[in-house]
Amino acid sequence: MEASGTSNMKFAMNGCIQIGTLDGANVEIREEVGEENFFLFGAQAHEIAGLRKERADGKFVPDERFEEVKEFVRSGAFGSYNYDDLIGSLEGNECFGRADYFLVGKDFPSYIECQEKVDEAYRDQKRWTKMSILNTAGSYKFSSDRTIHEYAKDIWNIEAVEIA
């Protein structure tokens, strides 16, 4: 088991260009690799409470494409597994279901739009390669070497020992 976000940090260190919402480790990753090298979609943190209230008040109107995706999952196209709990977590209100607590339905249109930008960037090999290199270069902050050096200096108050 690893701490939240470390997988995304490893992805960046290995040149992966990420698409994600602005939460958790993605905030730091985007700051380090540069906004232009990270595909951002979805609601911003300051919008979440209002969007959850809107959802709870029944004012949220789901995107038709998202409804189609849920129906496709329900259809059994992915096998005989019962997806009721998954789909139920994306529906309902505060009294029924989880009311899409993580706002997947709200973020879906933004995700589709962002994925189109990913596709466009991928078709431009020069741009994609540059973005990948800059993800690796910008991820130095997540290096265990940097972390250990910083902990040694700032937390443990120890100095490096030279080995002859």
Quaternary state of the chains = single chain
Distance between the termini: 37 Å
Question: Which structural class matches the secondary elements?
Answer: mainly alpha
Helix content, binned percent: 40-55%
Shape: elongated
Largest sheet: 2 strands, parallel
Report the β-strand fraction as a percent range: under 5%
Q: How many strand units?
A: 2
SS element count, helices: 8
CA gyration radius, whole angstroms: 21 Å
Mean pLDDT: 90
- Strands ordered across the widest β-sheet: 1-2
What's the number of structural domains? 2
Low-confidence stretches: none
Helix-strand string = HEHEHHHHHH
Family: Belongs to the glycogen phosphorylase family.
Function: Allosteric enzyme that catalyzes the rate-limiting step in glycogen catabolism, the phosphorolytic cleavage of glycogen to produce glucose-1-phosphate, and plays a central role in maintaining cellular and organismal glucose homeostasis.
GO molecular function, one term: pyridoxal phosphate binding
Keywords: Carbohydrate metabolism, Glycosyltransferase, Pyridoxal phosphate, Transferase
Structure, described:
There is one protein chain. The protein has eight helices and two strands; from the N terminus they run H-E-H-E-H-H-H-H-H-H. With 164 residues, the protein is mostly helical. The protein folds into two domains: 1-43 and 107-164, no CATH class; 45-102, no CATH class. Helix 1 runs parallel beside helix 2 (25-33).
